[in-house]
Write a structure and sequence with these properties.
homotetramer; about 325 residues; 2,3-Dihydroxybiphenyl 1,2-Dioxygenase, domain 1; 2 domains; ten-stranded mixed sheet; eight-stranded mixed sheet
Chain lengths: ~325, ~325, ~325, ~325
């Protein structure tokens, strides 16, 4: 099954991934993780919710922690160009028989919820409260010095289907892993905002969130975070890394929050805005696509993910790979 | 004079700045500078021209060195979405009574030359030969490890006019310096590709090129370049830096090639794709806008620029500032 | 006047520079500078004194801030091998008709004060209270992440005399600047602990302290400090840098505390323990000895220093250099 | 068995570890590894030997590659204070019934070979040819930018015995791992030159060389090496890392040369010259002593080492640990 041709004329204009809500069971612990350790900035909080932004973001939130009984992932949020695009988006999802529900979201203008065909809950809006820039308030930088939310990565039971759907919405594939035997997609990285990805899909029992990712300035910030986590009680929350991905060329670290939600800390990437950008193909049998430097990822990294609220999970159609692979 | 409203519906779609031709008087010396010292990759060369690309670029060239008797800047090159946009572009420039000349450019498909109203030579094309990725061929990385061309910066005799023109083409202002007394623009940074700028304008005798810029991974690469240049005979070509700009928040270094063409080495920046991004205003009297850390730029940095081929230079309408300023 | 031969059999064994007392006029401001901004750790404090250590130090203090009416520098502290060496030291200074005064110093065992022939107040001791290691308590790292005190640098009215005296005590010259015309020393870097220097001397009205220095892990920590200082009200306290010294090859930054005491932030250096290490000679006319990258130091850096308590200052015998130089 | 008291009055003065000879089976491959990849500088070579130094070293060689039929480690070289100390050294080894053989070593003055009680071949000398400094010839820096040889690490069948012997020679313990059950040493790091170690010993079948180590400027140089090795055919020679050791606090990478000789690339460390420095004790059951960040070392790292020429290997007296540990 070949990659779909990139779609430069989507039904509405998605600017970028924007934010996600994570349901967490212990607000104090999660605050210690995301605020005190990672260094995200609190923009609002009450008993039930903490709103967070990263250092160069001017939108009100990129991450919302919501107190709940079970760890879950709420909506993956995307920003569209303006209100007319928002209406076109609602119309389009409706026309596909996907559920559209207009919701109230604090700090966001008109917002609707829907789901992709696999059940991933999505949220679209055009305007969010804008806050004063803080990227030059260096006294506020701490932890890993997160600059901005970078992407979502999801387990998909059928990556070909996921790519086809998001391709229709204008997400363009930058790199992908192909299962040579079946000719089907094992994993794909797709973007709207001009980097390697806004959202990626990996073959696996799903839909589940594999991770969200934050962009940081240099690999040394990641080393600082490792030193900090390993001497402040978070050593067991370090899952994989540091390392360099073959795919995306990113310098990475994967960590788990107190509820098992995975975050990637990410730097290096490349510009992907050329319309004639050629997607880079990786062979499922090439271990360097995962870690350029050769060290394998731990088993948990291939198996563990977080459930989306209200989504029904099913097994991956391609099954688990004979070699462990994303 | 207020900033113009951003134009999200330009007459044609410019993807990004793409390349520039520099006329140099000694090919061997310029090769030593750009290839051996900066670390750009040669993609083609003959007696008269050297074509160069940076490490993550797949287009054939971002910089062309052409042998000539006098140092000059040739066309500033921009990539448009596709051939139909190219034709619309040619039509638009013609409709503005700006000269349109279709030219043969090796490694580029259909290309036309034109000028902006101040006389800056511009070049538009849609497709350039694509080369194999080399961003993971780490044995090729050397010098400052340049990843991609980032922007052009030009002296303009009337920045308000420059901004108005490029705004019409869809370039959006991210930061600007205002002369409080006159309410006029002193300088402005405008982008197409989602960073702080593709092209910036600074009040001064012009049009002249102030600098082109390359993006590098971390400040340590800039320190490496300083060490290299200062011990291989290039110490006098180091003009300003390293430092942090207030404007753009970039970590920077300015160097001069053997003919006096200025290059900025640049890292850190931020994502500017939100349509509701608020431009950041700087006061002409705030010295930290130039160097956040306080050290002033040398006089040459405010005065020296390179002539564009065939352009007539005139004095800045606002005159030189009472305080030296970009 | 040639360099004296290194003295491997000094009258007593000085292990390393250890600490210094700075008299400051506003304890709160100085605390904000050294603790909140630089990131030194408070080990004790009362109304009159703050004791500080850097992150890898286990001795109780490397810097003591003492409240006073006028900015001054107290004793330069050195650690000797043991109490018997301390007694030999006291005996030796007495035999040279230099004043020896036994003093009580909190957290130090037996300590005596004396002066070098130019009047620099010195303090010797063998044991200081040892504190628990904190170099792996990464939550405590902040500011520039200072690891240890590295050296003192003093203006000397006669560098040949200074070097001769400290050479007798076993300090070995690693690099030096010679005034070619007179054949006399302009500046010299001398060490006990195996790096480029524990104490250095520079021709100038003196004795005065030019600066004390702290060692930090990487140049990026210095860049972090610059960003922090320039956005928290300390921008005018940044005096020179960042840059690379020709002499010592150090990556440096010079900053001034609220009373004008100068601190160098320093990284990179080299191992100097070989007994047959050849001192590196620099010509006074070589501007790269000061800044390898070519940019000159500001005038204040050549002229400003802090007075030692009780020391009489006199003009440099060599006068000011025709070119401004350390 | 408690740690022996540090011996500040050894029978002769060893300045530091100096160099090592590795017997390699394919000179071209080894040259590609150490010169082209790691970036060591060739100071002499013929068909049978390549002499190498690191960037800040002025002694002629820190590593000698010698062609042979089987991979082996030759003498571990140490520099003593002067010729009289060399003679005292020879006398001392003779008095201990250890073999003393005076040998010709190119570029070294008088040199003798001996063995420690477990059979590790040692070599002592006082003077080696001194070369011109190259630490500021930045055009020569490549690969991992190795600055100097840092230490040796050996498997010892009885670490208590090894430490007792080297302690007598003035090597001082900085950190150690104790087997709580038996109260015996599992591993120990001992120094002469003021860092964490010149030579370390780890419980294991021995004597065998576990690794030699080179000091590099920053963690980013190690990341550069990983990127280079993994894209130039050396990915399988990356064994462990990058990571931070609990012990020594070093940022590390372990790589294997074409014959399986292991090299550690090492940065961060701390100053250990205080005579009252307290050795840091680690529990054998604490996994963070090996990797502060928690990820385990591969099995090969605990088992693989290189044979010393002419040494008889025996099993570790403490046996293999119930938990794999150095």
């Amino acid at each position: 099954m070949p990659l779909p041709a990139p779609n430069f004329d989507p039904p509405f204009n998605i600017i970028r991934l924007s934010h996600v809500e994570l349901v967490v069971t212990d607000m104090a612990k999660s605050r210690a993780f995301y605020v005190d350790t990672l260094g995200l900035q609190v923009t609002d909080e009450d008993e039930d919710r903490i709103y967070l932004r990263a250092m160069e973001e001017r939108g009100h939130h990129c991450l919302v922690l919501r107190k709940g009984d079970d760890p879950q992932v709420g909506d993956l949020g995307f920003k569209v160009f303006d209100e007319s695009h928002l209406d076109r988006a609602a119309h389009w999802f409706t026309s596909r028989d996907l559920p559209v529900e207009w919701v109230e979201r604090p700090y966001q203008s008109k917002t609707f919820r829907t789901r992709d065909p696999h059940g991933i809950p999505l949220e679209f809006y055009a305007r969010m409260d804008r806050l004063k820039p803080i990227h030059q308030q260096y006294a506020l930088y701490k932890g890993v010095k997160p600059l901005r939310i970078d992407h979502f990565n999801c387990f998909s039971p059928n990556v070909d289907e996921s790519v086809a759907f998001y391709n229709e919405l204008g997400f363009r594939v930058t790199e992908y892993t192909e299962d040579e035997d079946s000719g089907r997609l094992w994993a794909a990285w797709t973007h709207r905002k001009g980097g390697v990805h806004d959202i990626a899909f990996t073959n696996g029992r799903g839909p589940r969130l594999h991770h969200l990712a934050f962009w940081v300035p240099t690999p040394l910030n990641i080393i600082d975070l490792l030193d900090l986590m390993s001497t402040t009680g978070w050593v067991k929350n370090i899952e994989r890394g540091p390392g360099r991905h073959g795919i995306s060329n990113a310098f990475f670290l994967y960590i788990l929050d107190p509820d098992g939600h995975r975050t990637e800390i990410y730097c290096s990437d490349y510009q992907t805005i050329d319309p004639d950008l050629e997607p880079i193909r990786w062979d499922l049998k090439d271990p360097q696509r995962q870690t350029l430097w050769g060290s394998p990822a731990p088993k948990s990294w291939f198996e563990h993910g977080t459930l989306f609220a209200g989504a029904t999970v099913r097994d991956a159609e391609l099954g688990a790979s004979p070699i462990i692979a994303p």
